[in-house]
Amino acid sequence: MNEPIGRIVRLQVHAEPLKQNGAYRPDPLVSINRAVVGADGMLGWDGSGWIVDTHHRAHPRAKGGGRRVLSIGFTGHYAAMADRFDGVPVGVAGENIVVDGPAVTADDIAAGLVVRCGDGTEVELLAPQPAVACTGFTSYLLNADEVLAHDVVADHLAFLSTGTRGFILDVTHLDRLVEITVGDLVLRR
Q1: Which tens digit of pLDDT belongs to each residue from 99-153?
Q2: Taking a C-beta distance cutoff of 8 angstroms, is the pair 132, 163 a contact?
Q3: Measured between alpha carbons, how far is 11 from 132 in angstroms, rounded to an integer?
Q4: How many Cα atoms are found within 13 Å in the side-chain-facing hemisphere of 149?
Q5: Residues of 15-50 as b/e, b for ≥16 C-beta within 10 angstroms?
Q6: Rounded distance between C-alpha atoms, residue 165 and residue 133, angstroms
Q7: What's the burial of 94, exposed, middle or buried (CB within 10 Å: 0-12/13-18/19+)?
């Protein structure tokens, strides 16, 4: 039986890569209210057109070759990051979907997640794996003027890489595009 975790409070696409020359910049994140998700990734509707997420296989500068086509995070993780770092706005970690719910571990959601859409359609999001934090993102959270060396931020990287930075999801099983919106319910599979 699927157990509710919380509702989607933020959807966003990366119009362009968030890392440039190793430095993390959240400027290319575009907040949207609706998106379509398929095996190739996510497209976001900005009110006038569709934005192709940089991790989507069709993006001209596709990142990851389909390895990281969709990601999810939880507001509980943002609370944990706020306890450790100053000024961590919800969504700054770059997840495509942010859920108003508790911090979860990889074990908590190992069986996957389900998005229950407003029309009752359910979308399975499989094999959640913790997103590994990079030195650029960690340096950004530390308000550093430059990208700090790995050994300088190693304990922060370990903290962020256990799921606090979010989870990468497998959607390769989807055989059609499915629309999700802010307010849809996310459940533990």
Answers
A1: 999 999 999 999 999 999 999 999 999 999 999 999 999 999 999 999 999 999 9
A2: no
A3: 20
A4: 2
A5: bbbbbeeebbeeebbeebebbebbbbbbbbbeeeee
A6: 7
A7: buried
Q: What is the four-CA torsion angle of 143, 146, 149, 155, rounded to 10 degrees?
A: 10
- Is residue 29 within 8 A of residue 11, CB to CB? The reply is no
Whole-number Cα distances in Å, 63 to 4, 60, 67, 135: 31, 9, 8, 17
Strand partners, 73: 98
The 8 Å CB, 24+ separation contacts for 78-86 are: 79/103, 80/164, 81/141, 81/160, 81/164, 84/156, 84/159, 85/141, 85/142, 86/143
Which residues, given as ranges, of the chain have pLDDT below 70? Answer: 1, 60-68
Q: Residue 20's pLDDT is what?
A: 83
The two structure tokens encoding residue 95: 């997840």
CB atoms within 10 A of CB 169: 24
Distance (Å, rounded) from C-alpha 72 to C-alpha 136? 20
Strand 122-130 relative to strand 34-38, pairing: unpaired
Nearest to residue 7, comparing CAs of 156, 188, 182? 182
